[in-house]
Amino acid sequence: MRWWPVSIEAIRWALNAAPIPRDRRDASSLAVVLVGLANHADPDGRNAFPSLARLAQYTRLSERSIRYALRELEKLDLIQGSDPDIVAAYVKRADRRPNGYDLAMHRHDCGQSG
After folding, report:
1. Gene3D superfamilies recorded for this chain (predicted)?
2. Contact assessment for residue 52 and residue 98, using Cβ atoms and an 8 Å cutoff
3. Taking the CB of the first residue and of the last residue of the chain, which one, N or C, has fewer CB atoms within 10 A?
């Protein structure tokens, strides 16, 4: 199992400042997937590339539900695709490369702290 540095900043943002509308039926699923991505992001919220299987393990959601949540998070402008060359630098086999995501921490910083 590969270990990576955990970004407390990205996780804190996902838990406290990410503007996921509470009135959405899928708010809980979106939030837990966002926290899963944040667990893999750097301190600026970039370059998170966990596999769908890893996110399913974290969230207890199906891979189909994960894909739906990722699409919805993109629509809400909370994540966007990251540079595929960065993922390729870490995962050499093209057939094993997950999609990479950047969290929109800089666009949605609500001034939450500690």
Report:
1. Winged helix-like DNA-binding domain superfamily/Winged helix DNA-binding domain
2. yes
3. N
What are the domain boundaries of the chain? 8-103
Q: With respect to CATH, is domain 8-103 assigned 1.10.10? A: yes
3-class DSSP state of 81: strand
What's the pLDDT tens digit per position in 75-111?
999 999 888 787 777 777 877 778 889 999 987 555 4
**C-beta neighbour count of 24 within 10 angstroms:** 13
Task: Determine whether 51 is exposed, middle or buried from the number of CB atoms within 10 Å of its CB (0-12, 13-18, 19+).
Answer: middle
User: How do strand 101-103 and strand 79-81 relate by DSSP bridges?
Assistant: antiparallel
- Give the type of residue at 93: R
Contacts of 66 (CB under 8 A, 6+ apart): 33, 52, 55, 56, 59
SS3 103: strand
Rounded CA separation 57/36 (Å)? 10
